[in-house]
Write the structure tokens for this entry.
Amino acid sequence: MNPKKKVLISGASIAGPTLGFWLTKYGFEVTIVERSTSLRLGGQNLDVRGAGRAIVRMMGIEKEILAANTGEIGLQFVNRDNGVEAEFPAGNGDSFTSEAEILRGDLVNILYECTKNEVKYVFGKYINAINQANNKVEITFNDDKVEVFDLLIAADGVRSTTRKLIFGNEPELKFTGLYNAWFTIPRIERDTKWARWYTAPKSRVMLLRPDNHGTIRASFSFLSDDKSYINQSDRDKKKILKDKLTGAGWEEERLMKEIDNDNEVYFDGISQVHAPRWFDGRAGMIGDAAYCPTPLTGMGTTLAMVGAYLLAGELFLHDKHEEAFLAYEKRMRPFVEKVQKLPPGVPWLAHPKSSFGVNLVNTVAAILASRPVNAIKRFFSGKEKDVTKDDIELPEYE
């Protein structure tokens, strides 16, 4: 490997800085460009689990992640009157709330702090054009400046613009039929350390989760086959959200008010990215840009970190980037395909249309949370699964 190889990464969220960490460790010269003028520290809860947990341990940032825990103590299913129908405390192997529950922004900041001295970060900059040659990739940025790199990796999210420049319309965004909105709202007296899940008729779900910043992270999701919502203006998106919230009950009025007050409401259709190839010449993609599994899997962060670790390792092992890319896909693609397989009935079962369906969801949740069922699960599950293991091998590249 040539230790002077220059790598450009587009996107300073999770996959990009993680890749930058490992590449600089192996002697590469790394630049990360980020469209935003600063770190984007918003977002909801993330769960660092399985192989992802093993990687943050190797990076030496596990303690920081655990220290930034949101403080959430578990999940409650509630009814229209805020009565608890079922309760799932944190700490169980299959719990909704994990030990390494962290806000996206907090994780982004931790990754930035542990890489900023070795990785060159450039904010307010993005790629306008890519011109590949046999021995280089020429990048034209939004300020019309042109720079040359050995490799380019897109790590700028599910709606990656860099991916479009590399692959055109070849990758498929597979819409799940679910829309979700995320925003941050003030904490009030009735909020607790429990996450609260409320299912409403007409295929709607509200979720309020406490954080470690004195606020509440709110989520509102609903089913719809109308793909036009994605391309609406921010003003029209807020109108759509309020129309969908109308008549839902529970915290409906509170969320309506905060949608108007919040300028950073994130609203999008939940889609998976399916790409027949992740690399073209000297350019490629990782993380959500390449294989977004959707938040429904709970594995997006793990895929981003595992992908970054393996790609850096294969580039370290192989002098030729073509061989590294092939070795990476061989390791990574089976894991991605397994993660992207959603369980039967997801997301429709959790978003029932009728009041009867809502009652059924709450009843099933109560049964699963009951002591007899938990005792049976503990009996058959045995020892809790090691958080460092998962369905993919993590070679020691050094």
About this structure: The longest strand covers residues 172-186. The radius of gyration is 22 Å. The longest helix spans residues 321-340. Residues 17 and 112 are 7 Å apart (CA to CA).
